[in-house]
Amino acid sequence: MKILLVAEYRDGQLLGTSSELINFATSMGAESAMFLVGSENKLPSYNGRIYLADSGQAGEFNPDGHKQLLLEVIAKEQPQMVVLPHSSYGWDLAPRVALALKAAQISEVVEVRDGHLVVPACNAKLRRQLKPVTDNCVVTLQGGAFTPSEEPSGTPEVIKVEATAAGAVQFHGYEEAAATGVDLSKADIIVSAGRGIGKPENLEIIENLAKALKGEYGASRPVVDAEWADQSRQVGTTGQTVSPKLYVACGISGAIQHLAGMKKSEFVLAINTDKDAPIGEIADVLAVADLKQLVPILTEKLNAL
Amino acid sequence: MKILVCIKQVPDMESKFKVNAAGNWFDETDLAWRMNEYDEYAVEQAVQLKEQNPDAELTVLCIGPERVKETMKKALAMGCDRGYHIADNDSHLKDPFAIASLIAGYAKDQSFDLIFTGMQSQDRGSAQVGVLVAEILGIPSLTTLVEFSYADGTINAKRELEGGTKAKVSCATPALVTCQLGLNTPRYPTLPNIMKAKKKELLSVPVEELNPPALLIETLQVAPPEKKGGGLILEGDPAELADQLIKILKEKTTALA
Ligand SMILES: Cc1cc2nc3c(=O)[nH]c(=O)nc-3n(C[C@H](O)[C@H](O)[C@H](O)COP(=O)(O)OP(=O)(O)OC[C@H]3O[C@@H](n4cnc5c(N)ncnc54)[C@H](O)[C@@H]3O)c2cc1C
Ligand SMILES: Nc1ncnc2c1ncn2[C@@H]1O[C@H](COP(=O)(O)O)[C@@H](O)[C@H]1O
């Protein structure tokens, strides 16, 4: 089998997902080549061919342009599988390429089992084993699912590809997240509020527990989206990445995008009414309880210590 | 101006999921159904656009069995003008390409200026249908939007990237956009609007009349993930739980040191 890997590059940097792509190809026992719209000065360590388009010419975000370039490389390499990260870059580009190839796309692969691709469903409560019926397929990989134990090595052979015409989408630059508020990445203890708090007034329960533990409070995305907590409190792929000694997840289901931001915590305590909540998979302790009852009692007892 | 918004009905993610008898999806017994969370943002944005352009017509489309009409009525109560239901008892077995082909098949002769979808469905999470619809129709698409504005045939928007960075993008209509969480604040339908929605047109067309394409993906198995175990599960009276937790925190962490 031959796989074409699509690495990503943003704002002058090669993104770390390229090592996950390489590791995936290795775990499939496949021959691989890579495609990258990036820069000669930022190439991944890789023992293979890289088709490189210059991002200055091709545009860093230019879906039509990247699709055209990728299709040209696919025509040369004839891979059976095209693999991208399941990221803002990958899920945008993958379906465009899949449709052009009339190929099946399998999104957010977490595992390869008996040679078949496994994807999560229903907030990781189920898993589906899928098989493309088409000759070729496009695949996106869940972030972190194929992290190699050792960083890949090697120097790639670079084949330059020329960028084509502009596309229908114009890109006008980046807007960085405002660096105000708390820096949760330095906190030793974090108590986070999820949608399970139910209403903004209940955030206080979480803040009080954080105070009793002499830590900071954090939040999952719905709590931030609803403006119950400041953006700087958000933990996850689009918020902060934290690794405290203790992380208490209150009313948080444990969606992959949240886990990605806190799974390096040393000890995870989850408080959730749902015994099957996926947070249970990474929690050291899951207390099955209504946070509105348990958290105030816990806080009171801690304060009395 | 003509606008289309595509919505999906999904089970409440807090449900307990059991694999169905055929082993290809979940068992529907006892599940509560709701609008895909991402699609609530899509409907809200479409309704806001309609409010800005009072002559606009806004259609909501959903593929699924009879029960999805309940969710479509919510979209009508939020402000969509009419519903187009593709009645399909097997929609849960269709792959993203088949769903997208059905949507594009409907949209191709309707000259919509703007099509809104969610960035992904909560049950499948493929994040494909929106982009596929746009590619089939040959119109531009902008994905994962957390900000949207439209004026004079141009969409200005922000895409959300990892780490909270945003990319500023624009394109001309006709176009399709996929909506990310937090794009806006979806409204709750008011009682008068719920009453009004009952009188709105909700056309239902059997999927068999629309020639759905052959599937590109075969489902081999559906199963709960293997429990990696390790984690301790505690249940019981809150006061006793609190004592147990304090004991564990003392023994296993330095938090109370
Ligand atoms: C591209 C992308 C990026 C994202 N980035 C992030 C991110 O950075 N951070 C993030 O958090 N999410 C992110 N998300 C969203 C993520 O997918 C989930 O939607 C989100 O994490 C869910 O938050 P939650 O667990 O608080 O809410 P839910 O999933 O709704 O879970 C609520 C939980 O509370 C429990 N509960 C309810 N009532 C109670 C009670 N009384 N007591 C105890 N428990 C209760 C429920 O059982 C449930 O498990 C992102 C999504 C996408 C697509
Ligand atoms: N059965 C359906 N009916 C109508 N729209 C759908 C359906 N399934 C998916 N969509 C739309 O496509 C988006 C992405 O879905 P998915 O590709 O399944 O993650 C959803 O947010 C909906 O807007």
Structure overview:
The complex is a heterodimer of chains A (305) and B (257). With 305 residues, chain A is of the alpha/beta class. Chain A has two domains: 2-161, HUPs (Rossmann fold); 184-303, Rossmann fold (3-Layer(aba) Sandwich), CATH 3.40.50.1220. Chain A has helices at residues 17-27, 55-58, 63-77, 90-101, 203-212, 221-225, 256-262, 291-304, and strands spanning 2-6, 9-10, 13-14, 31-38, 49-54, 81-85, 104-109, 111-113, 116-121, 126-132, 137-141, 157-160, 170-175, 189-193, 216-219, 246-250, 267-272, 285-288. In chain A, strands 7-11-6-1-4-5-12 form a seven-stranded parallel sheet, with helices on both faces. In chain A, strand 2 (9-10) and strand 3 form a beta hairpin. The radius of gyration of chain A is 22 Å and the shape is elongated. The termini of chain A are far apart. The relative contact order of chain A is 0.12. The model of chain A has no long low-confidence stretch (mean pLDDT 95). Chain B has 257 residues and is of the alpha/beta class. Chain B folds into two domains: 2-210, 3-Layer(aba) Sandwich (Rossmann fold), CATH 3.40.50; 225-257, no CATH class. In chain B, 27% of the residues lie in helices and 30% in strands. Chain B is built from six helices and 13 strands. In chain B, the strands form two sheets. Chain B has a nine-stranded mixed sheet, with helices on both faces. A two-stranded antiparallel ribbon of chain B has the order 2-3. In chain B, strand 8 and strand 9 form a beta hairpin. Chain B is globular. The chains are: A alpha/beta (305), B alpha/beta (257). At the A-B interface, helix 4, strand 7, strand 9, strand 10 and strand 13 of A face helix 4, strand 7, strand 8, strand 9 and strand 12 of B. Adenosine monophosphate (AMP) binds next to helix 1, strand 4, helix 3, strand 6 and helix 4 of chain B. Residues 194-196, 220-222, 234-239, 251-253, 255, 257-258, 261, 271-274, 277, 290-292 of chain A line the site of flavin-adenine dinucleotide.
